[in-house]
Amino acid sequence: MKRETLTDAELAWDGDRLVRLVVPGAVVHGDVVDDPLFGTAHVIEGATTMSVIDWARPTEIPAIAAPGKLAPGAGGILMNTLALLAERAGVAELFYAGPYPTPALYRTLVRSFRTPATEAEFTANIVERAARVARDRLPFPFIPAPHRRVALPGGHAELRDGLERAVLAGTRFERDGSPARLVPRDGGIHAELWFGDAPWADVATLSPDGVLLAGPHPLPACTSDVVGKEFPPPLRAAIAELVAEVVPAPLADAARQRLIAEAVRWADLGARAAAPTADGFAVHAVLWERVGPHGLGRLALALAEALAPVVTMTIVAELSSPHVQHSA
């Protein structure tokens, strides 16, 4: 048995057959087993299953039955390892052939691949594909372009065209991210939280090659008087219409209905702009303090931007859950 290490992944091979792939937070077994969802699959130990691929020369991006069951960050490392293996094998492009072309998957893939497809194009048929558990290929090529990971205390940095991403204390900072973004300034790269188009907290400073120079610093508390207060129905309805315009088109009606029917409250969410709750959603109260003084129209747009990705993830998880339960 041959063993090797590729960045954060440890692989064991029997000739060209993958025996085991270990990354932080996930262990993939190369054996092929029967699976109710995919027909045949690889087992991700203690979590879920994934469609079968040729790991030595991958031409397909695998579908994961329940990506939400993976440990945080494990999916990104798996996809980057896939890009490294494809690049090494001289594979020019890979294609996704699964039922869940979600915004989260697209954003994970573009960290390790390049593609001409937009997020809207990739996610355009998500409901239809989930309903029939699609296994045909989408037409969009993904060209291997893996990043290099640099370990940081409690996280890591990702380097490709410079410093593109950093994870610090569980928060993902990206170029042009919202609210967590990387900002070049004074020769360094600052990991900052932005609300209302202005910085709210400077969390850390990194060098252009991913070395942590300062921080991470504690986040300031939000002591706004609106913390804990619920949005009135007219405001929820207005935000619901705006969110329906920016989520993937097949999810627009479901997103609209969720926000009209469920509670939305102000909260101190730390580094998150919005989050799901037991009975609906919460939004960071700093948006009220920063954006509220500029008028209800601008505030509604900011709230829609914050809520759209959280509402999308909630609906996508529900779309996949019947299939995942059936395949368990």
Rg measurement, Å: 21 Å
Assembly context of the chains: single chain
Biggest sheet, spatial arrangement of strands: 11-12-13-14-15-16-17-18
Tell me the fraction of residues in β-strands, as a range: 25-35%
Helix content: 25-40%
**How do the SSEs run, as a string of H and E?**
EEEEEEEHEHEHHEEEEEEEEEHHEEEHH
Shape: globular
Summed over residues and divided by their number, the pLDDT gives a mean of 93
Contiguous helical run count: 8
Structure summary, number of beta strands: 21
Major sheet description = 8 strands, mixed
Low-confidence stretches: none
Q: Quick summary of this structure?
A:
With 328 residues, this protein is of the alpha+beta class. It has eight helices and 21 strands. 30% of the residues lie in helices and 33% in strands.
Describe the 3D structure.
Helix content is 30%, strand content 33%. The protein is of the alpha+beta class and 328 residues long. The chain has an eight-stranded mixed beta sheet with strand order 11-12-13-14-15-16-17-18, with no helix packed on it. A six-stranded antiparallel beta sheet has the order 1-2-3-4-5-6, covered by helices on one side. Strands 19-21-20 form a three-stranded mixed beta sheet. Strand 15 (180-185) and strand 16 (188-194) form a beta hairpin. Helix 5 runs antiparallel to helix 6 (252-261). The mean pLDDT is 93.
Fold blueprint:
Blueprint: E1 2-6, E2 9-14, E3 17-23, E4 26-35, E5 39-44, E6 48-51, E7 60-61, H1 74-89, E8 95-96, H2 103-109, E9 113-114, H3 119-123, H4 126-132, E10 143-144, E11 148-152, E12 155-160, E13 162-168, E14 171-175, E15 180-185, E16 188-194, E17 199-206, E18 212-214, H5 233-246, H6 252-261, E19 263-267, E20 274-277, E21 280-284, H7 286-291, H8 296-327
